Recover the amino acids of this structure.
C-alpha cells in the first residue's frame, strides 16, 4: 500500500485498508495497475446495491450487506466464466452508517476471499443513503455470453432455486426467517469456479440468476435469438419452495447455461457438491421462453410484448 | 449491442444505449469483454459524484453534471499516463431526476468523446439522491504513479490554477459566475494525451489536481518519500485568481508531474496549446511539501501531523 499522505479525508480509507490487510492491494495511487494474462480478454462489470432499493437495514447485518453487494457483482464474472483479477468498491456512506463501516468492510473482505480475489481500488463518499457500487475485473480466454445458445442445445441450472424469493417475501411481509432461509439469503455464492468448469465442459451460453430463472432465460433467448423451452417439473427447487417460486426467485446467483452436448452432471456434483440439473432445451422459433408443466400446459410464455407468469 | 430482452426495467437502459449510439459498446451482457494491448498493463479506477456532496443541482445542467463526473474519473487515467479502454457508469437516479436522465447521458457521452473512448457497461438504480459512479479502464506500458519522484527531480504543472476554486467559492456564496468562470468550472479536461506525452518525455511521477496543488503534491511527497519545494511565485495562476487560491483550488484536473531532467515546455505548448510550468524541485528530507514566496518565507508546510496554508 502506498502512503496516502496527511489529511482527515484519508483516515477512513486508511482504516478500511488496514482492516483489509493483504486483501487490499495497491490502494493509494490514482488508479490500480493490474495484469491480464497474455491471450486472455478483460471482463468488466459494475453493480450497485442501494439501501431501501436492494436491501433494508433491518434485514441484514452490515457484514452481510457488504458480502451480498460484492458477491452479486462477482456473480457477473461467473456468468461470463471469467476468473477474477480484482474488485473496486465505491462506498457512499451516510453519517448514520459510519460506525458500521468496519462491518461492511469485513463483509466485502469475506466476498473477495470467497472468490480468491482482492480489492484493488475504491472510493468513499458521504451520502444520504448507503450504496455500494462494485466493479469487478476478470479475465477469460473465451468468455461465455448470453448470445451463444443455439437450437438443439440443452439447458442446465446449478443448485436449487426459490429460497431467496421466499426469504424476501417473508421479510417484506414482516416475518422472521428460519435459520436455513436466512443462510441462503445472506450468504449467496458467486459460482465462479463452477462457471469455468462448465465453460471447459462445453457450455455455449451462460447467465447468472439475478432477475429470476424465467426472466434470465428470457434474456438468453433474446440475446441468442432462439426459443427456450423449460420443463417446470425438472426445475430444482429449494426446500420449502415450489417450482413457480423457483421460476421467479431473483438474487439466487446460481447459473443457467446452455450446451450443445450433455454435460457430466455427476462429475459436476462430485467436484462442487452442488447439483447440475437438465431443465430444458433450445429450439428454433420466435425468441422467448416457454415453460410447460407435466400436462404440457404453458406456464410461462415470454416474448417481445408480454411477460406473464 | 446485445438485445436486452423484454421487461420494463430495461426500458431506461435501452433509451440510454440508443442515445449513446456507437459511443456504447457491448452493453447487454453480464459483463463487458475488452482487449488490453499485449505488453501493456491494465489501469483501473473508480470515482463517485454524489448530489449535495460533489455538486449542487442549481449549479449545473444535467449535461454538465454527467460530463464533470466522467471527466473527473478519466482524469485518474491521465494521472497514470494511461490510454482509456472504456468506462462503466453506475447511475443512481431519484424519480425527480428521471426526466433529466437524457441530459446526464449526453454529458457522459461528451466526456467519453473528449477522451476518445466508449461506454462499455453500467448500472441503473433508483435512489433518493443522484449519484454517478464511474469506473475507468485504461492501459499503459509503464504507468506513472505518485511514488516515482526522486531527490533532484523538477516539478511541473500543466495549465493555470485557481479558477475552479474561485468559481466554487462564488457559487457557495450564492453569486452568479461570469462566462469564463463558468466555462472553466463546467468543462474541465482530462489531460490524457498530455500525460502520455509527458510520460514519453521522461516524467518520473504524476498526479491529477483534484484536491488542490498543495494537497496533491503532498500526496506525491508522501508516496515517494521525498520533500517537495515549490516557489509560490512560479505557480501559473488563472485570470482573476491569486497564487494562494491556485495552491488550494481543487477539481482543476490539471497535472502535476516530476521529472529527472528538464522537459521541453515550448514543445508541450506547441503540441497542446497549454502551458507547462516549472514550479519547484524534489529534495531529500522529511516527506512533505514546502511552498516559499519570493522573500523565502514558508507559505505552506505540510507534514505528518499538520497541514496549514
Amino acid at each position: 500500500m502506498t502512503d496516502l499522505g496527511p489529511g482527515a479525508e484519508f483516515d477512513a480509507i486508511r482504516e478500511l485498508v488496514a482492516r483489509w490487510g493483504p486483501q487490499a492491494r495497491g490502494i493509494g495511487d490514482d488508479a490500480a495497475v493490474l495484469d491480464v494474462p497474455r491471450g486472455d480478454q478483460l471482463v468488466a462489470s459494475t453493480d450497485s446495491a442501494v439501501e431501501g432499493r436492494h436491501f433494508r437495514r433491518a434485514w441484514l447485518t452490515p457484514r452481510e450487506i457488504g458480502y451480498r453487494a460484492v458477491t452479486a457483482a462477482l456473480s457477473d464474472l461467473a456468468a461470463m466464466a471469467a476468473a477474477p483479477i480484482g474488485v473496486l468498491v465505491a462506498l457512499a456512506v451516510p453519517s448514520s452508517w459510519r460506525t458500521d463501516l468496519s462491518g461492511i468492510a469485513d463483509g466485502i473482505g469475506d466476498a473477495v476471499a470467497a472468490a480468491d480475489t482482492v480489492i484493488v481500488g475504491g472510493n468513499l463518499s458521504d451520502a444520504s443513503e448507503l450504496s455500494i457500487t462494485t466493479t469487478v475485473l476478470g479475465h477469460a480466454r473465451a468468455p461465455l455470453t448470453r448470445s451463444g445458445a443455439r437450437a438443439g442445445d440443452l439447458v442446465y441450472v446449478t443448485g436449487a432455486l426459490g429460497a431467496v424469493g421466499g426469504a424476501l417475501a417473508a421479510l417484506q411481509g414482516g416475518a422472521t426467517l428460519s435459520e436455513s432461509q436466512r443462510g441462503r439469503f445472506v450468504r449467496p455464492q458467486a459460482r465462479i469456479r463452477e462457471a469455468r468448469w462448465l465453460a471447459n465442459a462445453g457450455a455455449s451460453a451462460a447467465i447468472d440468476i439475478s432477475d429470476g430463472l424465467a426472466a434470465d432465460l428470457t434474456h438468453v433467448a433474446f440475446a441468442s435469438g432462439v426459443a427456450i423451452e423449460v420443463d417446470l417439473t425438472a426445475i430444482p427447487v429449494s426446500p420449502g419452495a415450489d417450482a413457480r417460486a423457483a421460476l421467479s426467485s431473483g438474487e439466487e446467483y446460481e447459473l443457467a447455461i446452455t450446451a450443445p452436448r450433455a454435460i457430466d452432471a455427476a462429475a459436476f456434483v462430485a467436484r462442487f457438491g452442488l447439483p447440475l440439473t437438465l431443465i430444458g432445451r433450445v429450439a428454433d422459433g420466435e425468441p422467448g421462453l416457454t415453460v410447460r408443466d407435466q400436462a404440457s400446459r404453458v406456464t410461462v410464455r415470454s416474448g417481445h410484448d408480454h411477460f406473464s407468469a
Chain B is about 30% helix and 25% strand. The first strand of chain B starts at residue 32 and ends at 34. Chain B touches chain A through 77 residues (CB under 8 Å).
